[in-house]
Amino acid sequence: MYLFIRQLLDIQKGSDELDIKLQEEITNINKGVLIYDVVIFIGLLLTSTLSGSMVLGLILGTLVALMNLTSLARTIEKSVDMTPSRAKIYTSSKYSLRMMIIALVLFVTVKSSKLHLIGVFLGLIGPKIVILTRNMLFNKIKRKEL
Question: 73, 75, 76, 100: least surrounded by Cβ within 10 Å?
Answer without folding.
Answer: 100
